[in-house]
Write a structure and sequence with these properties.
The protein is an alpha/beta fold and 168 residues long. The chain contains seven helices and seven strands, in the order E-H-E-H-H-E-E-E-H-H-E-H-E-H. Helix 1 packs parallel to helix 3 and helix 1 packs parallel to helix 7. The protein is globular. 41% of the residues are buried.
């Protein structure tokens, strides 16, 4: 299966940890925590100290789901540091996207080589952040008409991509 990199904005730690656990079970290869504009300042400040805990959660979820190895959990970075992340297919989820559904954007020819999926914080990406993604060449996509919590969006998007990649 091709690699899925999850660019995950930092949000409330209990929910973020749940997303890390479930997305690990669903097969992500790498998780890059991102400090977004709407990330609470106290969460941003404390996030670097949580990496070891997140790695342990991913390791346990990997064992539980019989994965051969856990995903890499990167040190939290600012959004500008992930805009040029290398992946053949880079998708940012945005509630404001009205044309592209995630399931329609996962292209077999590109996705086979790897995919990066960016999930925003509580409250979503700001307009400036979405413009930065667009200028860096990311494709904007939606999970549909409903607004999901950040952790639900992360799991739903990972499941959609993993399912599409399995069927290729």
């Amino acid at each position: 299966m091709s690699e899925i990199t999850l660019v995950l904005a930092v949000f409330k730690f209990d929910r973020l940890e749940w997303a890390i656990e479930k997305c690990t079970e669903l097969g992500v290869s790498r998780i890059v925590p991102v400090i977004a504009r709407r990330t609470d300042t106290h969460l941003a400040a404390a996030s670097a100290k949580r990496v070891e805990r997140w790695q342990r959660i991913a390791r346990q979820a990997s064992e539980q789901s019989r994965r051969s190895s856990p995903p890499e959990i990167a040190t939290p970075v600012k959004l500008l540091e992930v805009l040029n992340l290398q992946a053949p297919l880079r998708i940012v989820l945005a509630e404001s996207e009205e044309r592209n559904l995630l399931c329609d954007v996962v292209k077999p020819d590109l996705a086979q080589s790897g995919i990066a999926l960016a999930i925003g914080p509580e409250g979503g990406w700001t307009t400036d952040e979405l413009q930065s993604f667009q200028q860096a060449g990311w494709i904007s996509a939606s999970l549909g008409n409903t607004i999901l919590r950040a952790e639900t969006a992360a799991m739903a998007a990972t499941a959609i991509v993993a399912s599409a990649l399995h069927s290729l």
